[in-house]
Amino acid sequence: MNTAEGADVFIQKLVNRYDRFVEEQLSKPEDIVIIESALFQDIVSVSHLQGMNLAQLQSFTESLQQVLIPLNPHLIYYYHADVEKQWRFICGVRGNEWGQVSFQSDEDFVQVGKVWSASQAFVRTAVDAWMIPKLIIENKDYAWAEYDSRIDGFVSESLLSASAGER
Questions:
Q1: Is residue 34's pLDDT more than 70?
Q2: Cα–Cα distance for residue pair 36/41, rounded to 1 Å
Q3: With 0-12 CB in 10 A as exposed, 13-18 as middle and 19+ as buried, what is 13?
């Protein structure tokens, strides 16, 4: 993804895949489709981390957002205020080595915090610009009960009341 040509191929494949996904979902009777963090964390963040040109990445992100519009998306987005702290928390649970992750020193945590903070800032800008109903939870204190309550309210207000009005 660090060449314009490679990024273009990747972008076209992913946009086509999401086009097919949306068409498939629209042909099904289900009212709600849940897309976990794959869109932003696994696609946009990793593309950013892999060095995709920012103009291409911005266009790619906007294309994915437009492809999803027919599904009437609503977004719940967790945003970690301190990325380094979050990585330390994750490794405190999982250990310092799992999957592609291997932290050997404090400096590793500092560096990953810087790199992922830049990626997260890009994603946050894209999330903020996407004009859909959304709840952004800035995780500072791991206050999961509070976050769950906010999510319940968001779902009740935006999703459940909208579907009740359609009936």
A1: yes
A2: 9
A3: exposed
Query: Which tokens belong to 74?
Result: 């609503």
Ranges assigned E (strand) in 101-146? 101-102, 134-139
Q: Which residues contact 44 (CB under 8 A, 6 or more apart)?
A: 57, 60, 61, 64, 122, 123, 126
Q: Can you read off the two tokens belonging to residue 71?
A: 């599904």
159: Cβ contacts below 8 Å, ≥ 6 apart: 32, 74
Here the tokens at position 72 are 């009437």
Q: Residues with Cβ < 8 Å from 10, sequence gap 6 or more?
A: 1, 47, 52
Amino acid letter, residue 123:
V
Q: 84-116, pLDDT tens digit by residue? A: 999 999 999 999 998 888 999 999 999 999 999
Q: Identify any residues that bridge with 77 across adjacent strands, giving them in sequence order.
A: 136
